[in-house]
Write a structure and sequence with these properties.
The complex is a heterotrimer of chains A (302), B (509) and C (293).
Chain A lengths: L1 H16 L5 H6 L5 H11 L5 H13 L13 H36 L4 H15 L2 H15 L12 H30 L2 H8 L4 H38 L5 H10 L3 H29 L1 H9 L4
Chain B lengths: L1 H17 L14 E6 L14 H10 L1 E2 L1 E3 L5 E3 L2 E8 L2 E6 L13 H14 L1 H6 L3 E6 L4 E6 L6 H5 L5 E2 L2 H8 L5 H7 L5 E7 L3 E6 L14 E6 L3 H10 L4 E2 L7 H6 L3 E6 L3 E7 L9 H10 L2 H9 L3 E3 L22 H11 L4 E7 L2 H16 L2 E7 L5 H6 L5 E7 L8 H5 L15 H12 L3 H18 L2 E7 L1 E6 L2 E2 L2 E2 L4 E2 L5 E2 L1
Parallel strand pairs in B: 1-12, 1-13, 17-18, 17-19
Antiparallel strand pairs in B: 2-9, 3-4, 5-6, 6-8, 7-8, 10-11, 11-12, 13-21, 14-21, 15-19, 15-20, 16-20, 22-25, 23-24
Helix pairs in contact in B: 10-12, 11-13, 16-17
Chain C lengths: L1 H24 L1 H23 L2 H6 L25 H37 L1 H16 L2 H11 L4 H28 L2 H8 L4 H9 L4 H24 L11 H7 L9 H28 L6
Helix pairs in contact in C: 1-12, 2-4, 2-12, 4-5, 4-7, 4-10, 5-7, 6-7, 7-10, 8-9, 10-11, 10-12, 11-12
The chains are: A mainly alpha (302), B alpha+beta (509), C mainly alpha (293).
Amino acid sequence: MIPVVIAVIFLVYGIMHMTPGDPVAVMLGADATPELIQETREALGITDPFLVQFANYVKNLFTGHFGTSWYTGRDVSERLFAAIPYTIKLSLLAMLVALVLSIPMGVLAAVKHNSLGDYTISIFAMIGVSAPTFWVGTMLMLLCSLGWGILPSAYDGTWKSYVLPTITQGFNMLASVTRTQRSSMLEVLSADYIRTARAKGVSNFSATYKHALRNAIIPSITVAGLNFGTLIGGAVAIETVFAIPGVGRLMIDSIKLHDTPTVIGCMVFVSVMVSVINLLVDLLYALIDPRIKAQYLKGGKK
Amino acid sequence: MKKNALRILAATLVLVMMLGLTVSAHAADWDGKITIVQSSDIINWDPCASTDTNTKNCLKNIVLRCFETDDYFNVFPVLVNTFEQEDNLTWKFTLHEGVKFFDGTPVTTDDVIFCLTRAKEGSSSGKTLLKPVTQFEKVDDLTFRIHTATPYGSMTTALSNTTATILSKAWVEKAEAGECTWDDVMRNGACGRYILGERSIGNSVTLVKNPNYFNPADAAQNEELTFRIIPEGTTRTIMVQTGEADVNVNLDTASMQEVLEDPNVEILQHESSTIYYIALNCESPNLSNKLVRQAIAYAINREDCLEVGYNGYGQVWENVWAPTVYGSSDNPSGYTYNPEKAMELLAQAGVSNLTLKACVKTDAEERIAQVVQAYLAMVGINLEYTRIDNTILTEVMGAGEYDMCFDYTAFYNDPELFVGRQFQASGIGAKNYAHFDNEKVNELMVKATSTLDEAERMACYTEINKILCDECPWIGMFNSNLYALQHKGVKGVNVNVETTYYYHTIRYE
Amino acid sequence: MNAANTRKIPKKKSQAYEIWRRFKKNKTAMAALIVLSLIILSTLCADFIWDYQKDACSINIKNRLQHPSWEHPLGTDELGRDMLCRLVYGARASLTVGILGTSFALLVGGTLGAIGGYYGGKLDNLIMRCTDVLLAIPGLLLCIAIMSAFKSNVFYISLSLGISYISKFTRIVRSSILSVRDQEYVEAARAIGASDFSIITKHVLMNCMAPIFVQYALAIGSRILSVSTLSYIGMGIQAPTPDWGNMLSGARAFIRGNTYLVMGPGVALLLTISSFNLIGDGLRDAMDPRLKK
């Protein structure tokens, strides 16, 4: 876990290191003398070799310091920590919406394979993945806020203002989980053990929902877990449309401001969070699939 | 299973329905709170460092200046009680008695002189605006004199600029030493109509009415002002339509049609001194040749820029200066759309296969950039643009990262107040995005500022304007109208030639 | 020996043919294949109908924001350019980004996943930790970071969007392989002395094609859509080159009064993504030995 996180930080830091732009010019303005610029450069440590800078950065991270923002002149963590809760709430809720809707939809599509219902669900999910979030968001806003007047259009601190962004975000993720659920369900339903179960006299319902679903749900969880990162990436647009002051917006603002430390801070935070989620997904596997649990217990050897 | 899915769907729908109405009826039971939506967050409370309109407009509610301006930049005293011009080179001011900062300390001449000196030395606009000043002289705790090297008729206008904001010396020094934040200064060391309340970075800023404001007649007419930061133009408009916000000060003209049809909102408009222009970096090897710059000025169809960028709400304007500026005239150099002439000039300059890098900051500018890109392509110039944030425009242009930038700006009437900042060497690295420095302009500026004869000054300004149009450091495109959107029933929103201003009069009745 | 060889060769041929034969029977999959071919064909033939510079790039403000009509079947955009023309040309950049990026990811990620999943042990561990690193950085954010460091063009965008998908394919292939690796038929193949490579490609990989195809198809769509988010935040493909992403994001200021601006690229995206999906489904059904008759 820790080496992975450090590697992630290294990658992010390396990429951002190549970004053009001189922080000192931004910080000091036009009137700075060359001597002052040089002094400030040294004080900021940006004249050090890359690896030294990186080592210092990681060292500071462990004490909770994300570096000094070139823009506000204060620690990046100040704005970052303010933004984090919004993004986490939004992403978790969206994930919940997506899972709650798509697993039943996927199962239904598989059970009624090639029926009208199957096609309707597929098309619905496809629209979700091919409609850009900022469009879906604006349309929902026009409908629910301006048309019916039942939900606020922009974030205003209440839970109601999470409804539209969450639906928009979840809708976008619907397709991948539904499709995965459908295809893995199909696969499992035609597997021998289900046929055996049926032959043994297990009821159709129980065979489908108890035996098959338990196995078929694993890939869906993988995909949902894997999509968590995408979800946070997608938050960039959603947070802008619905004016949620989350990490995505902070990052975009910072990129436009050439505020590299804040951008790195956002990326590092998001990446670390996603690695934790991925780890949880792995553990969840073991919980659901006894075969993998057995494998974990054996120490990963085949 | 199908039934289950249906049940879930129904449950979701019911849940959504149960959320109930969120739109509050305003006029009847107004709670004294006003919400304003704007596109960007407050960047820096330091009046000497803040450059963008949204920051300045918010700041102006918390702080006071010696003078303020009305719709047409006419100046009236606020913090100053009486003032007189003792002779051509001396101004004398007396402050109101009993004005107190939020922390209870009185506003004295020391604070005023400290802040004005700080502005003159520390900010680029202050440098230009207070350039003729030789000395700030303290007479007593409420009286001070300003001595200038040359006669300075626009002194009161200069003192009405945001950069000349009066704050508590003690608190500013603390903030500069890093002992407190600028937020603290806004809660303790200012003396305006509002006190900074809660602030959620990137989301909202709340200002609370100052109960001890020195002039009750001029105090805030609402209890609380909240600035919401809404980057997306469509969302801002919808929020005012639904009543979630009361005023949108950055109205996106693209949704004008829908807005006009809605009976729940009203549009405020004002003629403006705002010019959309392109600044060309005269030091860039691509644009150092005057002929190339002129070619660009000829190659652009300004009507199309106006139509696409601002939905046609304005007038085409070829000059660099706004129509209201002294010495400005309509199209003195004849820059109408003329691609043949542009090609001719480019051939004359011996330039071909030119690729230019530009930067844009807003959606409107991005659309204009696409139009300009298409027109420049027709004369063989390739334009690539990048989107950046407004805040770093000064830095990137100062560093010469881009050949040109798309921008808009409002103009003071008196060129003395802006030429130094925008078209002279002293402004390079600041608002002189064009890196423009011209001997003749410098001479004329000296001449204009050292004379008292209005006609002579005017002649100098006209001459400067001609040179600027000929040299093309900036290419004027159009003069936009100014719009703000308000929810029905809102009273007291002021729109002036530059921006929406003074939020303390906003109210429901 | 000789006889065995000669029998083997025609059998291989017939397997591909068999898949195709069964695929052909699947009407929806065939329809999707035709739609996709039409899209690709139209963008390849666009030059016969339009002039790229004149119709897709140059502006005509008098014609701006025209609702759909006979002359402009999909209307015109905010700069007066024909939407249909830009849509057809836009397929070039969009499909390039989608297919190039995803294929790159599939190739690298699939190989790593197969090796890791099959061999297990330290190698698997190493590969998985490497993909963990990539997987931890959300694709769009990684792409934004890369774009802010480099110039943005179609190739960079494709690859940087692809990089972030590598780990997804690695994981999917690996987990699929894990679930079939210990099954009897693989053990049987191993027992008769088949090489690891042939076991992985022939026996294991063939049996986990389904989730891979589903993901591949979806990935292409989401890559194309990612470009629209990139354009939305001002880091997409440089104008005036049309792609579906910047067409969608360019329309955002006008979507209230001119919804048709989103319809064209939206439907194109829908058709493309659905086609890839249905083809994926069809191939899976065709390849599934259990459905073999």
